[in-house]
Structure formats: C-alpha cells, structure tokens
Amino acid sequence: MSVIRVAREAYAAALPALSASLVGGLVAGLVLGGMQAELQAVPGLLVAVPALLATRGNVYGSLGARLSTGLHQGLIEPYVDAGDPRLRGAAAAALANGMLASGVAAAAVFLILTALGDAVAPLATLVAISLLSGLLSGIALTVVVVVVVFTGYRRGHDPDSLVGPVVTTTGDVFGIAFLLLSVRLVLAAGGGG
Amino acid sequence: MTTDWTVRGITRAMLPVLLVMTMVEVGSGLVLGSFEAQLYRYPTLLVLVPVTIGTAGNLGSILASRLSTAFHLGTFAFEPTDETLAGNAVATVALAVTLFPLVGAGAWLLQSLLGGAQLAVGTVLWISLASGIALAVLAVALTLGATYGAYRFGLDPDDVVIPVVTNTCDVLGVVVLFAVVQITL
Hints:
The complex is a heterodimer.
Chain A: H1 2-34, H2 36-41, H3 45-73, H4 85-116, H5 123-154, H6 159-188
Chain B: H1 7-34, H2 36-41, H3 43-73, H4 83-114, H5 121-152, H6 157-184
Helix pairs in contact in B: 1-6, 3-4, 3-5, 3-6, 4-5, 5-6
C-alpha cells in the first residue's frame, strides 16, 4: 500500500521536469542529426559531444544551485546588479570552469584518438570549437539561469526546484546549437582538418 | 564553502569533480564514436542520443536527490522492504516506461518530417523503450550502490552521489543505446 503511495508521489513530482527536458533533448537531437556534415568534417567532434553537453549541465546546474542558496541565505538580492561582487564571482567562475573543462575534454579526445590511431581533427581545431561553444553557450546559460532563478524567487517559487529542469533543458539545446555555430565559425576561419 | 563566492573559491570546490566527470563523459564519447558509422547511416539514432543520455541522467539524479533527502531525514533504511526505497525504485521504472516510448516516437516523427527516417517507427520505439527500461534498472542499482557507499564511508550523499550518478547514467545511456542497436540492427 505505502510503496504504491511513495511511488505515485515520486512519479508525479518528477514527470513535469522530465517531460520538459525530454522536449529539449529531442530538439538538441534534431540539431545533432542535422549536423552530420560538420561532424564528419571534424573527426573526433562526435566523441567530445557528451562531455561538452555534460559540462553545461554540471557547471550551470551548480551556478543555479549556488544562486538559490545565496538567495535563501540573503547573500545576494534577486535583482540583476552587474556590480554585485558575489554575482559577478559566481558567473565568472561558471564561465571559466565551463570553458576550462570544455578545453580539457577536447584535448583528451585528441590525445586518446591519436593514441588509438583513429582519424582526428587537429588539436587546435577541436580546442577552438570547444572553447568557442563553451563561451557562447556559457553566456546564454548564465543569462537564463540568473533570470529564471531571480524571477522565480521574486514570484515566490523555490528556485531549487526550477534550476534542474531549466538547466537540463536549455543546456542541451544551447549546448548543441552553439556547438553547430562554433564548428561553422571555426571551419569558415580555416580551421578544418 | 558556501560563503566563498570568489572565482578562486568556487573553482577550488568545483574543478576537481568537474574534470573527473569530464573524463568519464569522454569515455561515453568514445563508445559513441565506436558506432559512428551506424549513427550516420541512421540519423534517427543520432537524434536519440542527447535525449536518451539526458533522460537517463535525469532519472538517476532525481532518484539520487530523493534518496539523499530521505537519508538526511532518517526516513530511509537499506532494506529491500523499505518503502521509500521500493517506492522510488518503482517510480523510476514507471517513469522510464512512460517517457521512453515518447522519446522514440518523437525522434522518429521529427526525423521523418525533416529528413525522412530510414528506420521503421516500431524499430525506433523498440530501441528507445528497451534502452529506457534497461537504463532505469541500472540507474536504480547504481544509485543504491553509490548512496550505500557514501553512507558507509561517512560522506554526504548530496556532494558525492548526485554528480557520480548523473554522469555515470550519461555514460550508461550511450552504452545501453549502443548495445540495443547492436542487438536490433
């Protein structure tokens, strides 16, 4: 009896957020399915995709959790003030760590594929694409996370329950969309393999 | 840690785990790279990749955070008869059974509208549902193992279990998808 009650409650609590991120994941997949030409032009890029997407979720999920905690503790105010040192520190740290992890992922993919003797694009191409997509999607996700957490908090929602679904949904979509843009920019700049 | 909002302080807390997780995800990318040819031949499979990884990671992270909370509240024991444990495990599998057919149908429909799908709708539904159920079972086992490990070693499950489970489920998402595709196609 009680197991069913627990299960029903857990199911109902998780379904809306999972459904939202499902839609985001399908949109991201559609973009990924449509960028075969780019993936084939940059061997090794597909191998980096899971790491690049997960970095968005890990870094900006953590930024959202930090901002939520800061609001609950009264450390920051729920209004965008670019001069607030805490807000600036949290956003800059997210951006820096996100780009660093993206660059490390690209370098690791290059080294492993080279060691395995597989075809791989030049290191500079992979790193440039990863850093550029990390920067662009990072800026977009910082804006989304700050706006959603602050607006949600001002309207009386618990920002903790908003962060997870918003970051997983927008993280996948922005992650892939800015990856496509970055590949095109780097290839256009002559960074092809 | 929560009061240190400098770039240096946040980086010190975040970067080591982040880099470990990044390397785990590179492992998942290598599995993805190993069936690259099939992914390019059947782009519907490529559409399935982010949503399968994401949903698997989400199922794991939701279960992990619920068990962590129950653990902190002391409403949870490591016994097969524990109601919180059994209820959440049942809910995870039920969520997978609900969502993964939608994942498959959505991927097939979108791919058909855009580029024409080479795989039959039934095949895509089967790949998605079989992967989803396998992933839900693995997510439950992994979350229980990680929560138990954190408990045994006196670690806070919030710090350890959620990142470990989320990122491992990402990897398992790719591995299971790969395995089901190999069996099916």
